[in-house]
């Protein structure tokens, strides 16, 4: 019999994940700082708590999905945080994208209370969160992973145990390097195709099945040429992740040349007030340099 499961953080990713836990038949307790975001889940059968502590008091396993490292720390250890309400033997599963170093520190603090911890960041955008097809990179004890696996299988289709605590977050930063560098390639290619007079839809169809194909090309390329900037993942959140990549790369002594360049391009777009647009709006920075918009009317 499964344990009652809590979910804290019902933003662009968390809402879809929590909904899939409900659809899988789990008894779910949710909390979100902006209470209105919990209303659709309440209507679908979730119990709504008034604090992270209240979630932890009712659940043996608690998932978190919030924006940045300080937000996770506040949810876990702030006033009315998870750590103040969870009984010994509980398990925290953090699906946020945050600092690997901070993740290891939180796990050690929770272990002092006999509470387990997994870092389990996810990839697949809002589409994957809604469909339950996320890729999940897990760091932590294998026994904790097996306890959490039924819930993880409700939200994702690829679950990979990367190693000890923090390794899931490091793998997610690898993912983010690949995402943004892929998007830069898509952006350059589409601007080039537009300048060369090609039909952009035919161009995507011609190359996506070959060696040049990628998730970003197939999923974000069509959005770009339609001028659809709805976020699967916002520029602001992507830029936060790139900050984490660059900080970790500095610690590791690793060059991240393309990632650094892309971070600068995103900063330009943020200064133009575009931080809430999807990360595929990266192309707008190149379009301004080229004086060309890679759009195509139906």
TrEMBL record:
The lineage of its organism: Bacteria, Bacillati, Actinomycetota, Actinomycetes, Propionibacteriales. Belongs to the HIBADH-related family. The active site is at residue 172. It holds the Pfam family NAD_binding_2. It comes from Thermasporomyces composti. This is 3-hydroxyisobutyrate dehydrogenase. It comes from the Bacteria. GO terms for molecular function: NAD binding; NADP binding; oxidoreductase activity. Keywords: NAD, Oxidoreductase. The keyword GTP-binding does not apply. Residues 4-163 form the 6-phosphogluconate dehydrogenase NADP-binding domain. GO terms for biological process: organic acid catabolic process. Residues 166-286 form the 3-hydroxyisobutyrate dehydrogenase-like NAD-binding domain. The keyword Oxidoreductase applies.
